[in-house]
Amino acid sequence: MLVCILIAVILFLIFLRLYLKSCVRKCKCNTSLVGKVVIVTGANSGIGYHTAFKLAAKGSKVILACRNENRARIAIDKIKNGTGNSQVTFKKLDLTSLQSIRDFADNVLKTEDRLDVLVNNAGACALENKYTTDGIIEGMQVNHFGPFLLTLLLIPLLKKSGPSRIINVSSLVYLIGFVNLKKINEKRALRATLYADSKLCNLLIQQEFARRLKEMDIVINSVHPGIIMTNILGEMNPFFEAFLTFLCWMSPRTTDDGAETVVHVALSEECGNATGKFYIDCKDTFVLYKARNPDLAQKLWEVSENVVKDYL
Q1: Of the candidates 255, 266, 260, which has an alpha carbon nearest to the alpha carbon of residue 221?
Q2: Residue 188 burial (CB count, 10 A)
Q3: pLDDT by residue (tens digit) across 117-146?
């Protein structure tokens, strides 16, 4: 009897895995990006790299915004060789430093005439539960406060280049996230909890961005790239790592697959006419009220703006 149950469970898991793999969709947009400028943060590896590669293949100038220059240079060579596009460059960006974000934005505003797409891809899950030199919990700074500041600083160029797009790489893990504005910069007992909270912040803050950018010809949307084992995860608790490995096996997506929805939101006509949306497998997806609560979104904006005010 036990053997039969075990076989049934294994067969069910295999069937579910095949079904989930069939759900992976490819971006079918043929839009040319010749003459356009795109920034992809964290683009030297993983989903960010494949996003940069695919957008470069469409003819755009792509700026890899990364912390590690050596890894970025290697990625640039691969993208240039693979796409034949020579307009792929590097600019240093360290999201753990608000000054680095300010310096990066100043450089972009000084050297670029336009910015058509900003992809806030860089993020981390298993960062140490510590404060940065800016006095912000590292995971929250990398995943929320840093991208928030970067986006704010680049709005003038995005507005000038309109219609333009902002894309945030978020996650379905927002479902278990919680935003307590009074404790947003406090340490969490579990690092995974901090990650979930920051991903919920991504979705909330985009609602306020969408409202404020409505008249600027700028749209902002988020994506869930899928459950994928990338270096964003860093070092984790062995039990959590084992569980995540199982989830990744169940949803067999590559980092290349993960970039598809990002590229779809960057290119498709549908997404150019939508704002404040959340896309999964290239489809607009319903989000819980806690991720689109307008009052909470506005209050989160005010708190976030106060945290980064010295660099605005």
Answers
A1: 266
A2: 17
A3: 999 999 877 566 789 999 999 999 999 999
Judge contact between 173 and 115, C-beta under 8 A.
no
Cα gap 309→86, rounded to integer Å: 37
Contact 228, 255 (CB under 8 A): yes
d(CA 146, CA 95): 5
pLDDT classification of 232: cutoffs 50, 70, 90: very low
Question: Would residue 195 show up in a list of annotated catalytic residues for this protein?
Answer: yes
Residue whose C-alpha is closest to residue 142's, from 153, 157, 130, 154: 130
Length of the chain counted residue by residue: 312
Question: Residue 187 corresponds to which amino acid?
Answer: K
Which is the catalytic residue, given 49, 174, 195, 279?
195
- Find, among 264, 291, 25, 273, the residue nearest to 167 by Cα: 264
Nearest to 125, CA basis, from 202, 236, 287: 236
- Bridge partners (DSSP) listed for residue 165: 117, 219
